[in-house]
Amino acid sequence: MNDYLGVIAPEGEKALYMGYANIPLAIGWFYGSLRGGEVYDKMGDKANLAIRYLADHAGVTGVDRTVAFEKLQSVLNLNAADATTLLWNTYHPYTLWYQFAAVGFASAIGILFYSFWVKKYEAPDI
Question: Alpha-carbon distance 34 to 124, whole Å?
Fold first, then answer.
């Protein structure tokens, strides 16, 4: 990204454009700070996935987070690896990264469109 911005920058404004390379990072930190914990808690935390599985498939409710995974193992008579695989295949926790990747991709595309916009309104050489 830095190389690209250095190439499209007009003479004398390379430092300004190089600063633009941090825009996707800033957007990612902002979005990640707001949503990261909530998204992980809902979509990726093994204890919460175990609680959800127990409620949805075994009719067991009111399980504390600290013992949820062990409870899942005992109710379904599974070892830790099999219980993890069950939760992985049921809830697909890796999909939580899709929305973060989308924000990063949108930021990079935004920088690309911005470069076209800047070139369109570039001041003529004097």
Answer: 42
